[in-house]
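retry 2 of 3: previous attempt timed out while embedding flavin-adenine dinucleotide. Reduced batch size to 1 and resubmitted. Inputs unchanged:
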Amino acid sequence: MSQTVPPNLVSRTWSHPAEPPKAIPDAADIVIIGGGIIGISTAWFLARQGIDVVVCEKGHIAGEQSGRNWGWVRQQGRDSREMPMIVESLRIWRQLGEAIGEDVGFREQGILYLIDNDTQFERFAAWVKAVEHYNIGSRLIDARELGGLVQGTTARWLGALYTASDGRAEPHKATPALARAAAREGAAIFTACAVRGIESSAGRVSAVVTEHGTISTSTVLCAGGAWTSMFCRSLGIRVPQLRVRGTVARTAPSNRVVCNGNMIEGRLALRRRLDGGYTLAHGTTLEHPITPSTIRFGPKFIPALRMERRNLRLSLGRAFVDEWNTPKRWSLDEQSPFEKCRVLDPRPNRRILRQIREHTDVLFPELAGVPIVESWAGTIEMTPDVIPVIDQAEALPGFFIATGFSGHGFGIGPGAGKAIAGLLTGDGSGIDLREFRLGRFFDGTPIRPQTSV
Ligand SMILES: Cc1cc2nc3c(=O)[nH]c(=O)nc-3n(C[C@H](O)[C@H](O)[C@H](O)COP(=O)(O)OP(=O)(O)OC[C@H]3O[C@@H](n4cnc5c(N)ncnc54)[C@H](O)[C@@H]3O)c2cc1C
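retry 2 succeeded.
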């Protein structure tokens, strides 16, 4: 029998307090702002080279996007500009558990985009052709082959776009495990340690000011996820970025296997979890709470909004007032906005949760008896062309930015970490980062999103 979602079921996974540091160092080679998968992967690559790196996280490791995502590690459907980095990232994921001595739940179980019309078929066929030279094995499969990969369903699809070399991993495990590995290699990682701002001397970075004191450094990476635009604005650096909210749920462990990897169609997205349960989400709906940033950056986001017009629900409410009331600059010896909100923990949308339950039960009747035991929401951040910014700020030498990973940053995280570490040291990584320049939004380069959030 079909079950409803208990109305008060909201995640408690992120409610525990983080441990503040007893002391912080006076100086470091590199300071990273943000303990998500981007900041932590970068720290891991740097520490392995013997570089003295410090990570400051205002809440706890993976408390925001990196611990709340669906757990898809995918090359499939990527923007062509991200392909070299995601292919490298998959290579790293395959060896990650062994390299750090912990199971992060990575399993190469493939990803399926289910097809129910000819337009989708043509779009996916064009994508397969465009990425052929990466040899990742993406291909279109028919309904018969699909039947071996998705079982117990009432639906009939024409086929699917399938990449067997894609995978899944556990978001609540991966970044904390990488953080422990980075610490073993010598990185200093501090939680409950908000960075309030940057000091400069002779026109370049000279120190990072945290709520617990100042760290002298010549190099800073801002990997602050959804907070990056606001942090950069306080330094006079413009980073166009908007937020969207995604609602997610997970079921109790189950021995009913309807799909062992990841699958998505219009109504439902599903990932098999390491514990045997499923992480579930709506297949298309995302929400954008309108804020002053929507108006400020709106014109640059028109191509992305046009592309997402069927999937995006706009709302006007509390988020507008909250952003309006947040100061744009603050004194570095006073509490900053980053200490006032340790963890972005939006409420899941109950209507979407009900739809997730209904769609699961209709598509997979075998799962109707498997209860949803947790639900949560996450704030995804995106740039106008839905690919990241990875660059040094022209206006402030020594200040680097890595943000805007959109709904695809978990999978690409280790590859991005390697690339960013190469950028920070100046040694390079073999991954070309020119497409990720911040300046592309201001120098007349056409803004062309290729994929959705
Ligand atoms: C619902 C949802 C589903 C998703 N699904 C997928 C998926 O299946 N696959 C995929 O690849 N990606 C997915 N993503 C996207 C992915 O999670 C993100 O792109 C990725 O985690 C971004 O990592 P990050 O390190 O840049 O940001 P975050 O994980 O958000 O980390 C940034 C950190 O910086 C900290 N911070 C900010 N400002 C300061 C400051 N001033 N001082 C100290 N600390 C600060 C924050 O507290 C935060 O912890 C999803 C995201 C969501 C929300």
